[in-house]
Design goal:
Layout (H helix, E strand, L loop, with lengths): L6 E10 L5 E4 L6 E4 L7 H7 L7 E6 L13 E5 L13 E5 L5 E10 L2 E5 L9 E12 L2 H6 L11
Antiparallel strand pairs: 1-2, 1-3, 1-9, 4-9, 5-8, 6-7, 7-8
Length: 160
Amino acid sequence: MQVCNQMVVTIDYTLTDNDGNVVDSSQGNEPMAYLHGANNIIPGLETALEGKNVGDEFSVTVNPEEGYGERDESRQQVVPKEMFGEEEIQLGAQFHAASPDGNHIVVTVIEVDGDEITVDGNHPLAGEVLNFEVKVVEIRDATQEELDHGHVHGAEGHDH
Ligand code: ZN
């Protein structure tokens, strides 16, 4: 069985940036399961997994345009502190917000200057070259319900 559309694929992975720092890893956690062909994962990684078999191990370098996109400075904005209500604002704190086009985004506080808070709506990995070490752990057919929902159910997947 090979990785192709409508398959649930389980992988172990380690993600490092170009300085060799580990950014994210399934080591010590559960492997990650995703639905292939459903944009569950970044395009550069999904493309690299196409046609792979269980047990395959490989490295792939993903550029920003196939990853989390380029950084867009216009996604940084200064907002008044009172917009956060009573919440304590700290550098690095993340909040859920709606972008101007209505998408759900996560913004990160990058500067606190008195009553002015600067938030950044870029993905933390936007503009980064991503180096993945990947091992394919399991491949199975998706259920009809998973295909309808566009994501994986079960232990490593969506819980609802
Ligand atoms: Zn679901």
